[in-house]
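Batch manifest, entry 17 of 40.
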Amino acid sequence: MAARRRPAGRYAEVRVSAADLPAPRRFLYTYAELSVRAPDGRTTSLGTTESVAGEASPAYIHPYELPLATAADADAPYTVTVWAVHRRHSVAPGEKEKAVPLGSAPLSLRAALATRDGVVVAPLGPAAGSLVLVVEALTPPRPPVSYNMTLSLAAGCGIGGPPAGRGEEAPTPPAVFFVIYRAMASGALDADWVPVYRSEGVTPPHRGSAGDVTWATASLSAEALCAGDERRALRIEWFHTRDGAAGGRRLAFVQTSASAFRYARPGGVLRMVGAEGVVTAGTVGLVALKNGLVGRAGRVSSVYILRVESIAGGAEDKLGGGVSYLAARATDVGVGPDSGRPLPRGVRQA
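Output type: structure tokens
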């Protein structure tokens, strides 16, 4: 994934996802590439997203940030192409992996921003699925504002299941990761969310373990986290990974906003909404927070430390509330509408 520098001044944030891509087994990864056509007809690549593994409907976390200071910027002729990386078990010496284009679609910033919610859905080609673009105009705040969120799993929260019996070895539970979403600008439906951050997976602690398990801190600018609007709704959702497959299995989520933390106090609790038949209840505690810290060059940052305190499994859980034992029955967010309720945009992560 190529590094990209944010334009100075007003810019358009473009988040890319796709739906119903052809997914033959040999295509293990897909990624998107943005290009622009110059007046002389030459095409220049503006970089690629990260790769997403094995998804027919992938969402790419890393956005494009495009200049939007002039009318010419809004009318620039962009094209988005989705590529599949062809990886084989055996590659001949000197032969590089080849990327296969699955389809392309044009992007007009002016047309996208003229829609109610900034969403553009365009066909990639015959039997090639669709491209879904979410475009929002943003202006960086002065001074810069950032948010740092650290999440952890309490040792006794129950997500890793019970400890092993005497003389037994406890099974390793599936890794757990979380995704942070923000509500779309004019979103009104359960699906009107875009992903802005995906954590790494961590192995959850069994009940009775000695210590908590903590994810790496999510550090996001105000524009990336909440589009510069601290009242914008946020969703933090937890998933189990799936061995040998893409995506994850939904466990539970909480909803909040950056403005809610302004009035929160350590010891406060967020109640989880669990995936049906998987999680019946859960709590996330606010361990510590610092709002409005002023650093060098006037940069303002806020720090939030959250911990999953408890989580209880559904009726199928016969083993004492460890939801990891429900992985085989959990809602599969990697296969689309069979999940039983509308999926947030971009829930299908590699």
